[in-house]
């Protein structure tokens, strides 16, 4: 589904990710784990086209999308749920979802199938996005992404600022989507338990480079986590 080869990017003349290579198979959930400032969000922004690649190649679903504009990547099925959610606060929940469908050139009838997967949103369709709780906004951001019928979703820190009960709900949603639709996900996250419960594989990123891969169950062992990346289990 996704093949990244020797990818590099950054901000103006400051390199952030350097020589990153990895693959994600169809239907896989792949976690990317590392300290803050190691290039996790930069990697996702480069994959989705918000930042230009300065070297390397991005292959998606058999096509070279390295220099394709963001909207073309979205139309091919590569969608992004950014850190901080970035919903439209002044629009209703329904209109936020409609924006997700419109961005993929789809009609509003896709909303019903997404709402069946995320029924929590049904009673609040007329509510403005900006008045929702952080957890509701995160579910809305995911739902808006799903309204584009993605083949792959890039998720950036989805548990940030979210209460534990909503984190559990998001885990259930993502596992259900994997079973029913075979959705492919690349997940950047600091919450190691969240990654452990969802990911098929976990890539370690340090100073802008993929330095290794660990089985998800290793994240339950603080000694193993410290050995690979020196992070405290959260």
TrEMBL record:
GO molecular function per UniProt: ATP binding; ATP hydrolysis activity; branched-chain amino acid transmembrane transporter activity
Highest taxon of source: Bacteria
SUPFAM superfamilies linked: P-loop containing nucleoside triphosphate hydrolases
Residues in ABC transporter domain copies: 2-232
Coiled coil: none
Presence of keyword Transport: yes
GO biological process: L-amino acid transport
Stored CDD domains: ABC_TM1139_LivF_branched
Keywords per UniProt: Amino-acid transport, ATP-binding, Nucleotide-binding, Transport
Pfam families, sorted: ABC_tran (PF00005)
Assigned protein family: Belongs to the ABC transporter superfamily.
Name of the protein: ABC transporter ATP-binding protein
Organism: Vineibacter terrae
Species classification: Bacteria, Pseudomonadati, Pseudomonadota, Alphaproteobacteria, Hyphomicrobiales
